[in-house]
Amino acid sequence: SSGINAEWPLRPGSSTVELSFPIGPLFLNESGKHVFTCLASNQHRGVEYSKIREIEGIVGYPAQWVNGTWPVVETAKGESAVLACQFSGIPKPVVSWKRNGVSLPIVDDKGNSNHVLQKDGALLVASAANSDHTMFTCVGTNGFNSAPKDIQLIVASGVMSVAAASGLGIGIILLICFILLIMILLYRYQRRKKKVDVAVSHNGNGIDSVYANSKAAELLKEEEETKRLAEEQRRREEEKKREEVERRRREEEEAERIRREAEEAERLRQEEEERLRLEAEKEKLRLEAEAKARRDEEEKDMLEAEILARREAEAAEAERLRLEEEEKARRRRS
Question: How far apart are CA 193 and CA 45, in angstroms?
């Protein structure tokens, strides 16, 4: 493990001392829990005093989202979806999931739950249901903080595939149905026209013309009715197609709105993190300045004490020499 040795001189008679690291931030090669030992000692009247204190601390940094799924994920009902979410931090963050703000019951890779937590922290939705059409939140937690990240899951209706493929498939089906209907109507029209031609030819051979004309009129009436029904069917199919296009447009607008809201929330979160980082940097600079000022003050006090002690020693030495000279002069006179 790493260790740091440092000494701080104490003024004579001091009973307390405030220690700070003048070398700046403290970096350790190993993360996790560490025990720091603080040793303070001084001398007073020839007696040395010392005090040892051990402090337990955690070395690391908070959990932070680093990589994962785009804020909006789309899938079809009954299909699977993977919501990726990765965090960095020391100790390694533990990933948990919520749905609509409520903790989500999940199992590991061997479980049978519809929501499975992968080894890398991703959430596997095995079979998307209507209840999964909502906001999911992955949370990275370590000994420092809990960092949330929102991901919107959009579950499309089971009768359509995702996005543009659904509209294309429905359009093709409607086109095939319309072509088949036209072919049936043309077939029925040819058959009825043939019957009218036969009835008219029989009329030339002596069959009552009134009967032939009434039969032809009846067939024409049926043909008109068939055309009317076909036209109504076509209008209904077009109306369904328009409704389907409108519904898909509303879903796309809703997905876009959710995506924009998620991006705005992410932007605000990043701005808040940047603000907190700047405030922490300011506080760090302030503390360093205060620590430097205290050290300068202590050094000044020590220098003044040394100068005073040197002057007192010089004065004592001068007094001793003066007394010796007086003693020598007294002896010479005697």
Answer: 133
Q: In this structure, are strands 72-76 and 146-156 parallel, antiparallel, or unpaired? A: parallel
SS3 content of the chain, % helix, strand, coil (to 5): 50, 25, 25
| DSSP secondary structure letters along 117-159 | E-TTS-EEESS--GGGSEEEEEEEE-SS-EEEEEEEEEEE-TT
Q: How many C-beta atoms surround the C-beta of residue 289 within 10 A?
A: 10
Q: Is the pLDDT of residue 68 over 90?
A: no
Q: Side chain identity at 314, as an amino acid letter? A: E
Amino acid at 47: V
The rounded distance, in Å, linking the Cα atoms of 183 and 200 is 26
User: In this predicted model, what pLDDT tens digit does every residue of 171-223 receive, in sequence order?
Assistant: 677 788 788 888 887 777 777 666 555 554 544 444 444 445 566 677 778 87
Identify the bridge partners of residue 83 per DSSP, sorted by sequence position. Answer: 123
Q: What's the rounded Cα separation, in Å, for the pair 69 and 75?
A: 13
Report which of 63, 262, 82 is spatially closest to residue 148, judged by C-alpha positions. Answer: 63
DSSP H or E stretch at residue 47: strand 47-59
CA distances from 123 to 2, 86, 98, 135, 162 (A): 38, 11, 10, 13, 20
User: Closest Cα partner for 223 from 186, 180, 179, 197?
Assistant: 186
CA distance 136 to 149: 8
For 122, the token pair is: 């991703």
